[in-house]
Amino acid sequence: MHMESLKTGAFEQPGENGVAPRAAIIDGQLVIKHPPGGPYPVIVPCPGLRLVVNGEERSEPTPVNEKDRVEIIVQDERREGYWQVKVTADKQEALLQVKPWVLVRRQVRDLPPARVLYLEVLEQEDFYKPFTLEDLTREIERQGIQYGIDWQACARGLEASTEGTLTIARGQPPVPGKDASVELFFTTQQRVPVAVGEEETVNFRERFRFTAVEAGMVLARKHPAEVGQPGKAVTGEIIVPPEPRDIEMTAGSGAVLSNDGLEIIATIAGRPVARGLKGRVVISVVPALMHPGNVDITSGNISFTGDVMIAGQVEEGMSVEAGGNIYIEGAVSRAMVRAGGLIEVRGNVFSSLLAAGSTVALQQKFGSILARVAAILEQFVAAATQLIHHPSFKKDDLKGGIGPLVLLLLEKKFRDLPAAVELLKKEAHSLPAISMNGLTALMNDLERLVRMPLTINSLKQLEAMLKEIIAWRDEVNTPPQGGADIIIHYALNSTVVATGNIKVIGEGCYHTRLQAGKAVAVHGVFRGGEIQAQGDVYIKELGSRTGTSTKVETRAGAAVTIAHAFENTSIQIGSRQYSFVQEEWGVRLWLDREGNLARRSIPAP
Fold first, then answer.
1. Which of 50, 312, 328, 417 could covalently link to 73 via disulfide, CB atoms 3.0 to 4.6 Å apart?
2. If you ran DSSP here, which 8-state letter would residue 278 be given?
């Protein structure tokens, strides 16, 4: 584009010498006008073109006159496109990524006369396909894409005027299967709250119902795993869905598995228990013993494997031991009550020992022996399997059963198995915390193995025996969930120990020691004695006006709340101690982040 002189009305505006300096773009041509000797118009270049004045390219605003050789060189632009086909990692989609080629055509915009002329560019974009349908078809074949091709999407990719991604093939995703599950028809809570209306008088004794079942009740139902549906990749391969997880449902003591293996049915009345053990659910029924009167010299001590319910009281010198929960309607006087689960005494406790969760320790010895027998038997079965499948072993020797092989292993390699089985049998009968219901059959099988090995016919018998003893080992050695609680109304000169919480819901405690693995709550008075807890402690009234020494101790991280405290009582939280030197109301104590004793007043009840 070269400079031209053009006489138009717009340029005939007078300046100092009769003509104002002006430049314009008219019909794509640069026109310059100025008075002789200046001043001169200024041209400002813009992106997309080159401004060349007298053979020199300018990028800054440049004054020009009629004698200058001015060139405005328009630059067209070519933007490269691309395309590719990509199969996703799961082979469920084939994606076409496309960006068309673009040719940007430019021309200078016409501009009216101005003393400073800012050049402008007009652009037009022309789009070109980066590939043909034949190119795309060859690429689809090269990548092995053969299923779920969307040819309409392919056509849209050919006509695309903007950069983007289109799905040109879709596979069929596999339908996942459904994991097996076990539906329980009882709550796993030991006690189920009973709703109480707002206008009713709350009687704590009626606030809970203990979970119980009758013989013949269906306790659980297994919903088998459901296999999923296979899918198909865009490349044609069959995609197999993940194998659904199965779960083994086993009947423990007091229950039986139905013939189809899908239901667990109670065989006795009692409290249902469910335990999860590494992909297996064991469902049992803990039997309940109902004692209609007092526990005294006439009845003798009570030792039972399940729950014990006593309608009367436990008298002096007597003991009650249970593997499950113990409920006592009357008082406990100079006696011992020990339970593997919860203890609730609705009468008063005088000079007695109550221990909840203590029978778990009694099971440890039996569990240890059971684990030892299981380990020996596991090695025994492995050795028998290896010998049976060894090429040098003569199969004709076992036509009458594997008894001779079992006898050989007992005599040569596993001489300690008979003694271990005898010890297991003795311990099982001597421990009241262990239920023999269901275990008797296993003990008989083990005794036959070590005493009459020639009667063992097949390897499957040994494997079934091993499976059963492993199930018992896992069940016995699985610690109970949570701690065992104790609930009492009143205690005097007694020791109350629980692995869980201790709740005193009546008048309170006098000269008594409370030891809890979790929290302690005394809704009455606590006068004389001590409280040791691992959780929060709440006491309505602590100590006495006579200054009886009373102590509360808990771990760092717990809080102690006292509604009413007398002097000569002390609180220890972690390593920090606080002593009441005068009567106080509504105090909460805890340790702050720095480990210092913190205190806050709370409203008195």
1. 50
2. S
